Amino acid sequence: MIESLKYPTGEWPELKQGWVWLCGAGPGDAGLLTLHAVNAMKQADVIVFDALVQQEILDWARPDCEKIYAGKRGGKPSAKQRDISLHLVELAQEGKRVLRLKGGDPFVFGRGGEEAQTLVQHGIPVRIIPGISAGIGGLAYAGVPVTHRDVNQSVTFVTGHDQTGNTPSALDWSAISRGSQVIVVYMGMKHIGRISKALRDAGRPDDEPVAVVSEATTPNQRVLETTLATAEADIETSGMAAPAMICIGRSVLMRQVLDWQGQANGELPRDLDPLGRGKPAEQ
Ligand code: SAH
């Protein structure tokens, strides 16, 4: 596929021996990979991938490509992170063309910065290939725009837990609550009860819309619409589990008109004007 597309400024970049390309694989749907990612997969001698990378995507690698799983799940203390980074260093020093493939975007809650830093510290040349992050693309597949002119002029991306597995102590939920109309939570399923309480204690309304999107962009995608007060119980009842994005804010209402996957399956929009603007915006 990639060969038939001319790279605008000449040749597609070459993944050279001894280099590591740190690449985002997007949230799941193989169609959301970038062309740079596909170009990398066609060249790599070895791909080191994490748990969120869909197996089907790996089928695009060269048949003789070595595939190494380096997944971590569930916010456990990652003594292994150092091992992964050093393994990348070793592979590069062996003269391999190394592709480090990570879910979503490598620099969004993916520890890609740390891996790249270790590589650079060891003198390994790197290229960074961004990917579509689940907090943007995953929500878009659920029909939720992360910004919408009538709703928010800012959006805050937060992680629901830190290295210790707790809600991050550095997060000032009260400030976030006041400062951002829309809050997008990665890794938030375990602590949704605490998070929603903290936001309500800080003044966010009980009935504020919340969307939970699990396994976004994959055939197993599920979407739950709930509210801040009912999110924890509704998630529990639904049986939904990680990986999931949680979006808190009124942009979730736009799903009533923008659930394009539901519409593709024959459902009608529930409300053509969920934010009550009246006629369609003219500008
Ligand atoms: N670098 C990734 C995020 C890694 S942190 C990115 O940019 O998307 C892992 C968290 O990402 C998960 O716990 C979940 O909150 C979110 N996530 C990643 N892929 C997802 C998917 N397909 N559906 C829903 N959430 C996803």
Descriptive labels:
283 residues, alpha/beta, five-stranded mixed sheet, 17% strand
Task: Name the structural class.
Answer: alpha/beta
What characterizes the major β-sheet? 5 strands, parallel
Rg result: 20 Å
Question: What is the chain-wise order of helices and strands?
Answer: EHEHEHEHEHEHEHEEHEHH
Q: Round the mean pLDDT to the nearest integer and report it.
A: 92
Q: What's the end-to-end separation, in Å?
A: 38 Å
SSE blueprint and pairings:
Layout: E1 20-24, H1 35-43, E2 46-49, H2 55-58, E3 66-69, H3 80-93, E4 98-102, H4 112-121, E5 126-129, H5 134-141, E6 155-159, H6 173-179, E7 182-186, H7 192-201, E8 209-214, E9 222-227, H8 231-238, E10 244-248, H9 255-258, H10 260-264
Helix pairs in contact: 3-4, 6-7
The structure holds S-adenosyl-L-homocysteine (SAH).
